User: Fold these one by one.
Assistant:
Number 1:
Amino acid sequence: MVQDLLNATTLASIYVLFALGMSLVWGTIGILNFAHGSIFMFSAFIAYLVVQQIPLGMPAVIAIAMVSGALIAVAMQYLVFQPIMKKAKNPHAGELQLVIGGIGLSAIPISFAQRSTLSNPFGFSAGTFETQAYTIGGVIITNVMIIILIVGLGLGVGTALWIRNSKKGLALRALGVDPEVSAMMGIDRPKLALATMLYSGALAGLAGALLTYYFNSITSESGDTLLLKAFAIIILGGVGSIFGVILGSFILAFAEFAVLLYTNGSWVTAVSFGLLFLILLIRPQGILGKKEVRRT
Amino acid sequence: MLEVTDLVVRYGPVQAVSDMRLTATPGQITLVLGANGAGKTTTLRTICGLQRAVSGSVTLNGQNILGLSPSRIVRLGVAMVPEGRRVFAPLTVEDNLRLGGYTASRQDNDRTMAEVYEMFPILHERRSGVSGLLSGGEQQMLAFGRALMSQAETILMDEPSMGLAPAIVDSVLESARGIADSGKAVLMVEQNAEAGLEIANDVVVVSRGEVVYQGSAEGARKNPELVRAFLGDAALTDD
Amino acid sequence: MYRSKKHRLGVAAVGLSAVLTLAACSSGDSEDTAATAEATEEVVVEESATEDTTQEEAEAAEETCVLPPGDIKVVSIDSMTGPAAFAGILAEKGADLALKEINASGVLGDGVTMSIELLDDATSPDEAAAQFSKAAKDPDVPVIMGGVISSGAVVTSPIAEKEKVAVVYTQAGSPGVVIGDYTFRYTPPMDSYWGGVGSYIEEKGIKTMSVLYANDNPTLIATAETALPALAADLGFEILSSTGLPNSTQDFKAPISKILKEDPDAVAVLMVGAQNATVVSQMRESGWEAPKELLGFAGIENNFADIGEAAKGVTWASIFHVDSPAQSTQAFVDAVAAEYDGEEASNYTAERYDATYLVANSILAACSTDRQAVRDAMADLTNGSITGALGDVTFENQDARVAGFVVQWDGEKMVVLK
Amino acid sequence: MMGWIDQNEFLIGSTLTVFLLAISIQIPLRLGVISFASIGYYAIGGYGTAILMTQYDVSTWTSVVVASMAAAVVATLLGLIISRLNGLYLAMATVSFSLLLSAIAVNGGSVTGGAVGLFGVIGDITIWHTAGIAVVIIFLVSFTERGKLSRRIDATREDSQLASAMGINVTAYRRLSFPISGLIGGLAGALAVNLKTAINPESVNFTLVVLALTIIIIGGQASWIGALAGSLFFVWLPEILVFVGEWEEVVYGTLVVFAAVLVPGGVVGVFNDWRHRRSVARERPKVALLEAAAGESDAELTQSRSGKDG
């Protein structure tokens, strides 16, 4: 039982890492980034390519993935999302345009990685990091799990507190409510958007590297799976709420875990969509979301 | 001092503002009157950088600000109280004020926030409450306070009385007068000509994007027929 | 009619891999097979052996069958991009190699060559169908080779039946693929040979088993839901639980936890792609070590490169192995190594290589590029046993069957257990 | 010509069914409802037809009609229960509705054929029938793109509050869009399963959601011509891109990105903008009046409305 709770918490931390950046970007600068999964995968892929050449340890691999993720995200923002936002006639048209731009973008790295790996799984086995399992009171925990728990929950709570208490965090929340009035307040939206994308990309890279360590290998398509779950998590918790991401991640992870433990498992995909559908019917603003949040 | 000269703004092929001329002077309220669609809001939006102009100039104390980004313009000292107040509804009153002071220093913020609370005690009372739950009048006060927080010397107000109960309109416009009296230059767009003229120093009447009358508010008050003629004319296009 | 070409084929194959000869000669009787098996060892013997059996007939036929000079265009639809590209690209290497051998041998006749127009379905059923229907409506295409994805094959098979053109698939292990006279499959469905691990199960004294399978992959479903229960009934072991998971599952801690509580002797892992590596390594992290067993399925080795040591001891049944004792397989393995820079041959390459020979042999046997004649010849050829890169292959209703090997991952590669 | 049609029957058939699916998404979209439930309707139409034809030996056309009607009924119910939502929230709810149906398809046992799906759906619908149905739907849809109805639809989308003020029953319009969308989406699925003879969960998953969305946005949201242009483009793109071989996906992604950034109105939008500019230039005086009437904050609306008036 303790083991199951620990495992489910680890899964929740993974979800937090992935969904955090996505929620931040959607809830503040209003970009529902369909390419987030691609950034996640491709950052890990770049780290994999480097590790194939030079056997590196975990910190270096994570650093490479984070820098890659940040650069890809910034490039996407600069080349695609920002121009779309600038041109959008109204926020509603812009929203869809951004989604489409993200869809197009996501196809590119996936295709490159597929070509290169022939869709075979890839991982960091060429690196120097070794997974170690420890047994404490009958509960098995690995060093990767410990890192994921600390990093995932730490970054989740840290980001949430930062958004809640810092000046820039306040500015981001304001952007999420009303970009135009935010601009009247002197908030430089394009600059802040670029910074947010950079952070979100770095988080995606971090998640990519840690997940590859945790699962031992991922494939070019791994990001898409998480993307759909992240939608559920973000809406579950409430768009724009970072604590909501943590809550949503836990709910989804524990719900999936319960389904897998107590049923024959085949309905597990339906859990995320079912939860998503249900929450939208009952409480569309999400569990922690505020009703007035403008971005719909 | 804010000066707008020969401003032309278009939405695609539609000319929204043509040859607009305005001035806003410290300590004074310049009232812009005109029917719906006359180009008033567009003018304000252009001044604070939200809308691009085709030609003309907007200067602040002689320095050109036309074409700068909104955030740059706030820093130079022009703040906006937008139409419909548009407070950040899910955020607290205090967070709204802090956002108003986004470009200002911490000391300025602390000082101005105290002043705002003094001016609008109700805001202090509800400072940790969600601003979306304030009444219309309270939200308007918050929008004023938010603009003041930026330390801007010029404040643009877009229809501050819109949607408010008649009883509150007077007190809101009184506050606007108070802001001007504290030395700010106020450029106010109003539909409620009568109430607006009570507090304004100068008045500009626009119709179909053009200035059709310009003069002192006092003069207009003394000769209401004059203004009504223009407003009536402009109002006709509404149908 | 098709028998008449035996002689030509036999002679031509001398300088070649034995596959062509064997495929053509083995029209079903065991004597033929025995003779040709001998033949692979010694070229001279082989030639005479072939002549012995069919000399008269062959000589008579020699005169009658001459394919008109020119290029015979066969269309191949395969997944060269997209998630199934790893299989498609390897498969096409087999087709290319076979084609090169066939054309170099001149076996098709003077001035007759065969070529393959390769169309990429991008792992999309719709694209597969679009290309297939185009090829099927082109009367100049005598026969089609079909792609690796089942979801594409179930759509293209009715087109083949409707347009009356033979199609040979490799992979595409789903039901609904081999549906009539014109559909052939050169990859045995996994559930037909998975039972090969039965001996291993008995040897290890496995009494209880838990199964983890991908519930959205037809092949793996069939293996988990049909082949395994049948095997369990046969050998008398018990399946404690069978957990079907969708391909979106990434973390397997929950089902693993469930299985650990059941404490079976063996766990069968029948997942897709990277999931296998994750399951196996998470099992190991949870302390699943010998004598507890892990069983897998054909092709699982492609996912083990990154977990290496953790997958050591995973055992499964495979239709192909480079260390297979079969002469024909060894000839093929050498040919692949020679052609592709020392590359190790894979099952995908082997299947398509054999399928390409089947196509060429059918055209030769029919002595025509007429669709109906080619399909009839192919039906006749697959009526018996064909020996090739996959070793001895028989067919059940135009669907391949092989005995298979029990193989195991030794930490770096797969090795044959027996 | 006939030879070419014969050879490309599958692609033409795909274009038509994808077009119907796109129309099914476009109808609510024109009212400002971003709904991907059409994928679910498509699944209901497709699976319904396949189940009726292969398991109950119902005739082809009866199956198609019954399955499409079933999709319309489900759509109506869905429209009622998610009527509170709008924007991307509604989009998400409809995506999850569609993917839930896909999960049901996987777990449906012998009824849906599980992961293998259903195959051997051989009916007597030809490409000409499909084309005929598409033409009828184009004919009906084109009615909504002209005159008063078109203006009402545009107003509902661009500014629902203003539309309500103008006396348009926004809720009724939006609610009505669901059964219509459901019927057309179900029809698309029913015809597609007859074309492909098979249906499986993979063919109604998230990829189809993405494809449908890109078709509408790239083609153009405002008119059936946009849906048709998008369908043609995306169904035939792989054919056109054969020469780029393995880089097809990269080229596809890049094209989509370019379209999203450079032509927000879609391919058809570009054409309309050009036509629009010409008509506006001719109608300048009228425009100014209308602009003043509509209020400057709604300049966009004014612009499109005046363009159509002129």
Number 2:
Amino acid sequence: MYFNSVSELFSMSGHGSYVWFSYGVSALVLATLVIIARRRRAAAEQHIRALVRRKDATTSN
Amino acid sequence: MLNSGLEVKQLYTDRDDRVLFSDLSFQLNAGQLLQIAGPNGSGKTSLLRILAGLSSRYSGEVLWQGKSLQKNRHDYLQQLLYIGHGAGIKAVLSPLENLRWSCALRGAENSDVVLLDALNKVGLRGFEEQPCFSLSAGQQRRVNLARLFCIPAQLWILDEPFTAIDQGGVCEIEQWLSEFVSGGGSVLLTTHHKLSVSQDFSVIALGASNV
Amino acid sequence: MLNSGLEVKQLYTDRDDRVLFSDLSFQLNAGQLLQIAGPNGSGKTSLLRILAGLSSRYSGEVLWQGKSLQKNRHDYLQQLLYIGHGAGIKAVLSPLENLRWSCALRGAENSDVVLLDALNKVGLRGFEEQPCFSLSAGQQRRVNLARLFCIPAQLWILDEPFTAIDQGGVCEIEQWLSEFVSGGGSVLLTTHHKLSVSQDFSVIALGASNV
Amino acid sequence: MSEPKLLKLVIAVLHRDIVASLRRGSEWSNPLVFFVMVCALFPLGIGPQPDRLADLAPGILWVVALLASLLATDSLFRGDFDDATLEQMLLTHQSLYPQVLAKTLAHWLVTGLPLSLLSPMLGLLLHLPGEGTVPLMLSLVLGTSVLSFIGAIGAALTVGLRKGGLLLSLIVLPLYIPVLIFGSSAVKAAIEGAAYLPQLAMLGVFFLGALAFAPLAICGALRISVDQ
Amino acid sequence: MSEPKLLKLVIAVLHRDIVASLRRGSEWSNPLVFFVMVCALFPLGIGPQPDRLADLAPGILWVVALLASLLATDSLFRGDFDDATLEQMLLTHQSLYPQVLAKTLAHWLVTGLPLSLLSPMLGLLLHLPGEGTVPLMLSLVLGTSVLSFIGAIGAALTVGLRKGGLLLSLIVLPLYIPVLIFGSSAVKAAIEGAAYLPQLAMLGVFFLGALAFAPLAICGALRISVDQ
Amino acid sequence: MSSTFHKWGSPRWFYQFSGRLLPWLAILSLLLLVGGAVWGLAFVPADYKQGNSFRIMYIHVPAAAVAMGAYMTMATAGAIHLIWRMKLAAMVMKAIAPIGASLTFLSLLTGAVWGKPTWGTWWVWDARITSVLILFFLYLGVIALHQAFENRDAAAKACAVLAIVGAVNIPIIYWSVEWWYSLHQPASISFTGESTIHPSMLRPLMATLCGMYLFFGWLLLLYTRIEILEREKNTRWVQDLICGESR
Ligand code: HEM
Ligand SMILES: Nc1ncnc2c1ncn2[C@@H]1O[C@H](COP(=O)(O)OP(=O)(O)OP(=O)(O)O)[C@@H](O)[C@H]1O
Ligand SMILES: Nc1ncnc2c1ncn2[C@@H]1O[C@H](COP(=O)(O)OP(=O)(O)OP(=O)(O)O)[C@@H](O)[C@H]1O
Ligand SMILES: [Mg+2]
Ligand SMILES: [Mg+2]
């Protein structure tokens, strides 16, 4: 490791807040994209299941 | 009868120096229906807008319960329901939202049940929550007509209420008109249809020479 | 007849997962009139827009003289005259100017005499030079209908041509339709009126369950 | 007319207008997008030097905000006129005044307010010195509300006209000028370290005046516009 | 299709659009009034010092002209769509291309051209040095025509939308940027005594490109907008 | 050729094929991104001029590069959709827009944060920065246009037209902004030239760059597959897939 200690790694001689903020926001945005994908996928699946259930109900009547 | 409903005396209007009607006088009491007839461009809409108080391009007198419209405006508007040529609804809102707003304007405190019932009566069950722009021409007109069922009024002024309405719908509306008139309301309407209601009604024909 | 006029095969359309019509097939030859009937919201306008080539929201086939619309578009449009729900005229222009433009669009080289004659036929004598926004609802509709007399076509597709037209006007239009059909034209129209023309005509009713 | 009825009316109109605007989307997002993009155009037009931009920032920001507000104004009564719901507003026994007030308020809530809230970010883009940020936002909040009232008068006067829509900007822009002057000078004063409260107070006075008198003018103008 | 028929079509569309615009009045006068008034607002917003204004004049004039052109664009196909005459344009066997070309040209003739012709006067107002006047006019004549073409694409894409009216600005403004850059820098170059023909030539290239390709995009977009 | 094209155009085939690709993309991209970031954050020596703030580069540059590539991909998909009427292309196009916009936003944000310690200001009107801002506007335009349409097919076609027009303009915009900037050129500000970047600093950048490309590919597949499910919800194969064959 280039830094001598973990606290140095965090402070990065004063520029730490900028660097860590950037990485933090980036991780957040990228993770959000993934989470949104999972949510939408779940919603789509649920919608299709409901559709099929409705169809089955009408055909069995 | 001094305290009659709507009374029109010697009304006169012109447009671009063409006289639409002159010396027009009639009276509309509770329990009466009056049809304004006449070919296109004869001035039916112009007359109705004057009577609704939207237009002041006339000379002559218009009285409500014996008092002139200007003086009696507040009472008159409380009793009047006017449905014009225009859409009368916001296209991005749903039928239900449109009705809610219309009722609030008139201070009519209707629960959603009443409104849904009105929409049901005009044949829009299932379309209550869809934005109006995705409705067909006739369906949009029906949303506007649903106001007849949720806003209390003494006098209906209707400008071609049957436009874009299918035959079944026309019969239904004629029935509503009958019921309203039997219940003591007054109706003033224009239409190019042959009106068939159970009551007697009078017809005033505006100038036939224009078209 | 292979080289028939308009032929529709197994047409299907839905809106918001609601089927408007499915498996719709019919044929419209020269000298025939076909009315599309159905209550409000049953899909008449949607059908007419598809047949006019304005909408591609369908599956199935639409043929003109045996060839599909896409392939035969140029010929088809040369023969088609479509009058829709919309105004079809510019409000700031006069009836005459509106007609001039409509004719130029279709490459119909009409002198003003022909256009004035058309306006005369639809009862707008004296209003030729007035801006359209100062015409009544029915008069505006008549300007749009005047196109029937100055644009040569084989097939008329008319969406509720009688809207806002007075009773005399309706009779006249019915007569024009008769004459056009007798002369070998085809007409496809929707209307909520009871059509009375001198020829036999068929009626296709779209779903009655929607409203 | 009883108090709660009036309140109900105001709430109904507010609710409907805000819902319609949000659903249409364009009404609230357009002024915002316009604000952001035009602020970004200026550096491209006049050059990117930070000190020069910083010098011009208060003026540019205020002029562009004013334009965004002006553009949004045209639609205030236009839609209601076209679909004939304006007739319904006139044809009720309840007073027009609260309806007009509610409509103007709704309009400001979806145009002027978001714009004011976004302004600090645009200040960054134009290198507005940090001391200017708060006065910019405050002056915009107050100022755009005045602009909404003035604009509503113009919109009401011109809504029924088929020819001659030129009028709206012609009528409204001259009336906007005092607001622009006080608004931008508040920000400039703050940057130069001077007191900016006097200018804000002036904007407050404008606001109270507009609140009291503009609705009257708007009501009259609407009646005239419908009756033609 | 024979040549004279196409020409007749173009002339008919041109004639109708120009007459309608002139009769309505707002279409040609609104951008002009906007241009004049906003240019007049700037000295109020940023201060009246002549040398500072002179320095900024090319940028301001060009940005405001661009905005005026943008605002006018929305109405290009909107009216035709609303009154269903756009359907008529699509439902003819004659090609859409010349119609679209004629409409865009008509639009430029009633908005861009008057604006360009008026610009020297506004140059005076903003203390634009004399050497800048001719380049300003020339660059505006060329530039606004490109803006009209680009704007027409956006207008055609959005004309059928009920939500998202001035979504137009979001779509169109980024595409305007090259025109703004070359237009304003032509004027600046002229003021500084440098050659401004290169920039004008560049605008000419943009114009030819837009003339060749924009109508294609517009035709496609119109068909999409009507078919919903 | 045409048969492979057909196969590729079939949503069903694409769904199954992409399903096999997904885990690989996910693992590889996360490895590269996380590994490169850790490497760049903790192990690379500091830049002699900028100190430690240059470490933002390992996220900033990949985001910017992929954002631009994404726009071009989107426009290409749009063209394919318009010319060959391929439905799958429309779905790809719709899927890219939000991802591309997010990445553009990231590059703008990280750039701005980088600017504060190095230039002392959050924002300058540098040519490249300005171009990225315009790219962001272009993305927003496509997204807003898509949302404004009720009808999915019309939305796809309209967005395709806009994306293509935008793509034709991007080189013009970039080039004119570059030219514009060269006119003004405030000397106080300049990017760290490529030559000054030490090779040891470059290697983690390569890792995060590749990682970001793969990550983009992964997201693209995820979103396109959802799009397929939503559009083909009425088909037999989708219903069987979601509810099991044994209904
Ligand atoms: C909001 C501000 C910024 C934006 C939008 C931005 C955008 C970009 C873009 C588009 C690239 C090109 C990526 C590629 O083509 O591979 C890039 C690369 C780069 N940026 Fe930024 N940037 C910003 C701020 C900064 C700052 C403040 C710095 C450092 C002081 C910086 C340093 C770099 C470096 C070192 C590269 C890669 C090396 C090179 O290609 O020259 N950027 N940036
Ligand atoms: N843009 C749209 N979005 C969603 N649904 C729509 C849209 N346009 C029409 N519809 C739906 O399609 C159905 C048919 O509409 P259409 O206009 O074809 O009816 P119509 O038969 O012409 O009725 P009318 O007699 O009232 O004119 C309506 O129920 C309407 O809800
Ligand atoms: N704004 C206006 N400016 C000038 N003249 C007008 C205006 N509005 C209406 N007119 C004229 O007034 C006459 C009557 O119009 P009105 O709308 O009252 O007719 P109408 O009887 O309702 O006809 P329709 O049956 O077609 O609805 C028309 O001939 C029209 O030319
Ligand atoms: Mg009438
Ligand atoms: Mg219909």
